[in-house]
Design brief:
With about 400 residues, the protein is mainly alpha-helical. It has two domains: about 1-40 and about 215-405, no CATH class; about 50-190, abc type-2 transporter like fold (3-Layer(aba) Sandwich), CATH 3.40.1710. The protein contains 17 helices and four strands. The protein has a four-stranded mixed β-sheet, with helices on both faces. About 30% of the residues are buried.
């Protein structure tokens, strides 16, 4: 036991001197996770909004209807109509301070009722792509609607316009206009209004609550930090070999198992620190239930020991440290891609996700994602724990076998 504790203390003391590595193990996942979260949880889903500068030189009932059309319903949520003078409107639209500028000239209503040509001046802001197009389309629709209304109800509109200067229209006048408008609408109704038909509204089944998309990335980001650390710490066996530590242990083969266990325990402490930092940040941001923190940390630590052991066993297969580091580093990024660190497994096609779950870190990420999205804590099954512990145990056993097989003594 004293040898085990001494081995753990020695490794932690040496690794603590390399603080830059730990910053890299945390920094890269935090950077990637932060960028992904900003893209997903940003406010890009908000509605665009802009302003329409309006100069009404006619100041009639009809020109007021045109101006009011831009403030109705959802269109009013997109466009704010601001009445300005012609000079101010020209200046502000040229300066790009509005989405559009509409000038209704004097005599608009008279020309409209007489059926004579009239020009509405609309200038839009070329630096905006959405709202100016909406303003232009709405203006064209209003003009088309006005044309057909004038063709059908021109006489009635003229009568209302001419009577607007009177104090109170007579009841006879109002009734006469109403009857004429109703008769004309009834005459064109078969053309303008389609026949009625019954619609049966079928309520869809209640949809399952959608998972937080940004939360789906958290397990992969956490395991990314663990994978970086496991690969880097596994190379420490080469450092021990270069310093002669492993050569001295060859004479006492029974101590090799304790040496491997001590190094795994020291690595577990590092993984626990990384898991605590990354999970705390994720739990705080995504408001995950704190009851899931302990099981998630335990899962990540056991997963880290397994990854560390297998990376170490892999590195001991090569004759030189350079070739071992090269191969293990090259292997990291395909594992990250396949294991759900860059793309959540839940968001991938089923066939692709099934392949990703076959990778060791993909299996670990998938089970951690289930825990974080589950209703209650400790959703890891006994089978999942058994597989994870078996991965770690087999990897550590391979390390012991490889040390006894010649790596500790300096032979390939």
């Amino acid at each position: 036991m004293s040898f085990l504790l001494a081995s753990v203390a020695k490794d932690l003391s040496r690794w603590w001197q390399d603080k830059a590595s730990m910053l890299i193990w945390l920094g890269v996942p935090f950077l990637i996770g932060g960028l992904i979260t900003l893209m997903i949880d940003g406010d890009g889903g908000g509605k665009p909004s802009g302003s329409l500068l309006l100069t009404d030189q006619d100041e009639s009932l009809l020109s007021g209807l045109v101006a009011g059309a831009f403030s109705q319903g959802e269109l009013g949520e997109l466009i704010v109509v601001e009445k300005v003078s012609a000079e101010e409107g020209e200046r502000r639209i040229e300066a790009g301070e509005a989405s559009g500028f509409l000038l209704i000239p004097a005599g608009f209503s008279e020309a409209f009722l007489d059926g004579t040509p009239v020009t509405l001046t609309l200038k839009t802001n070329p630096s905006q792509s959405i709202l100016p197009g909406i303003i232009q389309d709405v203006t064209e629709i209003l003009l088309d609607a006005g044309f057909y209304a004038q063709q059908i109800l021109g006489d009635e509109l003229a009568a209302v316009q001419n009577s607007s200067s009177d104090n109170v229209p007579s009841e006879v006048f109002v009734a006469d206009i109403a009857v004429k408008v109703q008769n004309k609408i009834e005459a064109v109704a078969p053309i303008l209004i389609p026949p009625l038909f019954e619609i049966d509204v079928v309520e869809p089944p209640p949809a399952e609550p959608q998972a937080d998309v940004a939360l789906l990335f958290l397990p992969g980001i956490v395991l990314m930090a663990i994978l970086f650390a496991a690969n880097s710490l596994a190379a420490d066996y080469w450092q021990e070999r270069s310093s002669g530590t492993l050569r001295r242990l060859v004479s006492a083969p029974a101590v090799l198992s304790g040496f491997v266990a001590g190094k795994a325990l020291a690595a577990a402490i590092v993984f626990a620190a990384l898991a605590l930092v990354t999970l705390l940040a994720g739990f705080l941001y995504h408001e995950v239930a704190w009851s899931k923190l302990v099981p998630s940390m335990l899962w990540v630590v056991v997963s880290g020991i397994g990854l560390f052991a297998w990376f170490a066993a892999l590195q001991m297969l090569f004759a030189t440290r350079k070739s071992a580091n090269l191969v293990s580093t090259i292997l990291v990024f395909p594992l990250l891609m396949a294991g759900g660190s860059f793309f959540p497994l839940a968001a991938l096609p089923d066939s692709v996700a099934a392949v990703g779950r076959l990778s060791p870190n993909g299996f670990m990420v998938d089970k951690l994602a289930i825990e974080l999205s589950a209703v209650s804590a400790w959703s890891f099954s006994a089978g999942s724990w058994s597989v994870n512990l078996a991965i770690a145990a087999v990897g550590l056993a391979l390390c012991v076998v490889r040390l006894r097989g010649g790596f500790a003594g300096g032979s390939a």
